[in-house]
């Protein structure tokens, strides 16, 4: 009779344990991200297998790679949609190729802390220990100390090689290219021992048909359960390895290992490669019999003892039956009382009570919680129908639902409001009930439960409100992204308008009608420039610039713009205190507030006409005046009011008037963002806005902004003169119209200007004549090469050359980033002649002084 050797048995246990650990390890890893974020599915991973490390790595007869680890990598990769190509080579060369990045992955790398500095590893898929192989009959090696003066063989670069060096196993360590060579040498009588992983050694012995090589434990121990020679520290945790830093591929391969373990592929491959290797032996019948008796005799003794004990237990049970029954009855009574307490507590915690309606007597009975929900007296047993209905505002609807259940068996499931009798508080409840009948089918009573769902309803309403706010925020973010995206193109267009208008102004004779008209064009263009800045601020692509100011001039100027579009049927009255303020605000935002409020008033009175009154003054606000504005502090405020005599606004609309996208206007007259933006601007400035309106009597908006110290108002700065120059400038802009306009503008100031319309062309021009130019002015956003990249290339050639970077909008460059690159000047488009002239002169003069 034969059985598998205990080695085979325990190897199965080890194998399933390792497989379980593998699964747990992979599941413990962070969830792999989607495949298209990690490794392209169509990419073929480059891998390699060493010359001979059976059964993990072998070379097939056709020269291709094979073995357990090769098949495992193929299966894991295929499970996640990847493919692998293999080549074959010496191990020492392969691991260096992986470290250099020439390979994507190796299938068989033993983990160590030293290797972890060079590679990234997947979860280990098998753990095995090394052992020592010797020639049969050699009794000179029985433990590790016997190896010290022996010649031991290892494969160059293998874990066994690293282990032997680290532990100083021997003074004579001989390396071979592969382990087949080592086993052939040992079998031929050369050297003394081989240190290698046991499975690999057994496979090579079988392959080479060597009968004079054995592991140390098989030579020394012959018992059923041999004790192997322990090589402390020589545990090989085999993993897939990738070049350091490629965690995406590690996550992908871990996912593949998890899949093939769960679908049984791992077990199939293990049986294929390892089952033929593990040795088998016969177990003597005497040893089998001894093992059976060792278990059977104690078991028979245990059964006998159990029978005696059980007989005694039956006698005791019969004797104490009456006593036990009394105890059970007592315990049941206690448990019933405890259950009743728990039931009452559960009703209280869940705010759920039960009730019962007697059809004949028309009275209600309820649990303590049901009485508590209605605010009824806890000591009263029953209540009449009128008493209950007095707590229900919709008593007709609730009573009709009860009648429908009794007369027509229509399900009773109802949500309604109640007024608590003890506190007068309004609550929302939900009740469910069913009809109970006698044996003849006559209705007897209605039993149900009632639950206070007020808190849940409020929570649901809060959740809906938060979801709505999130949706509005996402809409605002989308609009902000769109606004930021068009700012660059709009600034280019505006730059051409301003530039050529300034040229026309300079060429127009004083006092001419053209000069007066062009001044209006420039005035509107400058306002448009500020509005673009406001668009960028709204889209979070540019910050606002709050300064101390007195708003009367801005309000007056904005109203003048409004007058041009308002029909004569609307009378505009101004009541402005010119000394109102100062406040800390962005001038463009003040313009926006007045423009939006006046435009809304105009739309309200467009059909019938009316009166529009704008007033501005300072006022003191007390805590009582603030009311619900908890975030605003009392003090001195600027008060701007815009009043119209339009149709007014209802209370329902006033409650939503500052919500984003809420509008009552027809398509084309409003987006629903105006008042929302105003509300945000005022709030961010530490103020608040209110709306007073009565249908049929008009509407008044009040804006309050806190005053700041008068002493921080900026002093009037002297007009800085425009100083001409004669330096040579290279001007780069991908818009040919802007490049031509800039050249014209700078040449009028005396400069020599060369223009280019892309960064690559400009770089070539500069490289041909690096000493010709005194200054480069470049746009940031250009095809082929951006302005910041052009500046870096130019400064590598001439570090002392000043560069001015211009941008209408760029999320990737700021003034701080530009200066950190070595750029001397930073200008926001659209460019104004005076600002550009001053900046050019300043940059050139600063560079001259620095040198």
Automatic annotation (TrEMBL):
Keyword set includes Phosphoprotein: yes
Stretches assigned to the Histidine kinase domain: 485-709
Family matches, as Pfam families: HATPase_c, HisKA, Response_reg, SBP_bac_3
Source organism superkingdom: Bacteria
TM ranges: 289-311
Catalytic activity as recorded in UniProt: ATP + protein L-histidine = ADP + protein N-phospho-L-histidine
EC code(s) of this entry: 2.7.13.3
Keyword Iron: no
Keyword terms of this UniProt record: ATP-binding, Kinase, Membrane, Nucleotide-binding, Phosphoprotein, Transferase, Transmembrane, Transmembrane helix, Two-component regulatory system
Domain PAC: 412-465
UniProt enzyme class: transferase
Annotated positions of the 4-aspartylphosphate modification: 779
Protein name, entry field: histidine kinase
């Amino acid at each position: 009779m034969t059985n598998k050797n205990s080695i085979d048995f325990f190897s199965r246990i080890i194998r399933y344990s390792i497989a379980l650990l593998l699964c747990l390890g992979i599941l413990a890893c962070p969830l792999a991200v989607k495949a298209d974020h990690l490794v392209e599915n169509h990419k073929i991973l480059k891998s390699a297998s060493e010359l001979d490390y059976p059964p993990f790595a072998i070379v097939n007869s056709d020269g291709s790679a094979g073995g357990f680890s090769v098949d495992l990598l193929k299966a894991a990769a295929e499970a996640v949609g990847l493919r692998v190509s293999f080549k074959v080579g010496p191990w020492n060369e392969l691991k260096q190729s992986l470290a250099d990045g020439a390979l994507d992955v190796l299938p068989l790398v033993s983990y160590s802390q030293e290797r972890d500095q060079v590679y990234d590893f997947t979860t280990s898929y098998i753990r095995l220990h090394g052992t020592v192989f010797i020639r049969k009959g050699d009794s000179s090696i029985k433990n590790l100390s016997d190896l010290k003066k022996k010649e031991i063989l290892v494969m160059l670069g293998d874990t066994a090689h690293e282990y032997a060096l680290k532990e100083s196993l021997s003074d004579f360590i001989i390396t071979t290219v592969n382990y087949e060579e080592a086993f052939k040498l040992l079998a031929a009588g050369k050297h003394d021992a081989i240190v290698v992983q046991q499975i690999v050694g057994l496979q090579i012995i079988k392959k080479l048909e060597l009968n004079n090589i054995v592991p140390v434990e098989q030579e020394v121990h012959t018992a059923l359960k041999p004790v192997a020679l322990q090589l402390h520290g020589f545990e090989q945790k085999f993993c897939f390895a990738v070049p350091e830093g490629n965690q995406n591929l590690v996550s992908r391969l871990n996912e593949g290992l998890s899949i093939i373990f769960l679908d049984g592929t791992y077990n199939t491959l293990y049986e294929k490669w390892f089952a033929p290797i593990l040795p088998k032996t016969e177990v003597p019948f005497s040893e089998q019999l001894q093992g059976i008796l060792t278990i059977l005799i104690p078991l028979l003794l245990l059964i006998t003892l159990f029978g005696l004990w059980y007989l005694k237990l039956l006698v005791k049970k019969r004797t104490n039956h009456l006593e036990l029954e009394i105890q059970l009855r007592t315990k049941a009574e206690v448990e019933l009382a405890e259950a009743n307490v728990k039931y009452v507590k559960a009703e209280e915690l869940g705010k759920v009570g039960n009730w019962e309606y007697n059809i004949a007597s028309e009275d209600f009975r309820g649990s303590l919680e049901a009485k508590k929900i209605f605010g009824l007296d806890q000591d009263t047993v029953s209540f009449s129908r009128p008493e209950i209905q007095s707590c229900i505002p919709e008593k007709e609807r609730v009573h009709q639902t009860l009648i429908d259940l009794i007369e027509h068996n229509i399900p009773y499931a109802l949500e309604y409001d109640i007024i608590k009798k003890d506190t007068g508080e309004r609550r929302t409840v939900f009740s469910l009930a069913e009809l109970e009948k006698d044996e003849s089918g006559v209705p007897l009573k209605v039993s149900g439960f009632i639950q206070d769902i007020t808190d849940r309803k409020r929570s649901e309403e809060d959740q809906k409100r938060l979801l709505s706010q999130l949706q509005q925020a996402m809409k605002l973010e989308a609009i902000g992204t769109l606004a930021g995206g068009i700012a660059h193109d709009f600034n280019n267009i505006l730059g051409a308008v301003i530039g050529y208008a300034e040229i026309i102004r300079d060429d127009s004779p004083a006092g001419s009608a053209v000069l007066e008209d062009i001044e209006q064009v420039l005035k509107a263009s400058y306002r448009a420039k500020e509005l673009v800045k406001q668009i960028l601020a709204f889209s979070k692509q540019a910050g606002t610039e709050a300064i101390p100011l007195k708003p009367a001039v801005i309000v007056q100027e904005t109203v003048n713009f409004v007058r041009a579009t308002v029909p004569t049927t609307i009378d505009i009255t101004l009541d402005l205190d010119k000394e109102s303020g100062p406040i800390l605000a962005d001038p463009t935002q003040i313009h926006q507030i007045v423009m939006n409020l006046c435009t809304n008033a105009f739309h309200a009175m467009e059909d019938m006409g009316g009166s529009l009154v704008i007033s501005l003054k300072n006022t003191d606000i007390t805590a009582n005046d603030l009311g619900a504005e908890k975030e605003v502090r009392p003090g001195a405020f600027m008060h701007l009011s815009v009043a119209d005599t339009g149709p007014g606004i209802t209370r329902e609309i006033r409650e939503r008037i500052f919500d984003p996208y809420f509008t009552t206007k027809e398509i084309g007259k409003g987006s629903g963002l105006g008042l929302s933006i105003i509300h945000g601007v005022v709030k961010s400035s530490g103020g608040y806005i209110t709306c007073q309106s009565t249908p049929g009597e008009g509407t008044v908006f009040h804006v309050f902004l806190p005053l700041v110290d008068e002493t921080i108002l900026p002093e009037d700065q002297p007009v800085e003169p425009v100083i001409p120059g004669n330096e040579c400038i290279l001007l780069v802009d991908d818009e040919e119209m802007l490049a031509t306009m800039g050249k014209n503008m700078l040449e009028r100031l005396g400069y020599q200007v060369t223009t280019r319309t892309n960064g690559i062309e400009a770089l070539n021009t500069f490289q041909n004549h690096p000493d010709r130019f005194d200054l480069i002015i470049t746009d940031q956003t250009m095809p082929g090469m951006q302005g910041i990249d052009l500046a870096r290339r130019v400064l590598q050639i001439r570090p002392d050359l000043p560069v001015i970077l211009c941008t209408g909008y760029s999320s990737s460059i700021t003034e701080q980033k530009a200066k950190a690159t070595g750029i001397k000047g930073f200008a926001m488009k659209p460019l104004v002649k005076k600002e550009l002239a001053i900046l050019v002169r300043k940059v050139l003069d600063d560079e001259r002084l620095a040198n």
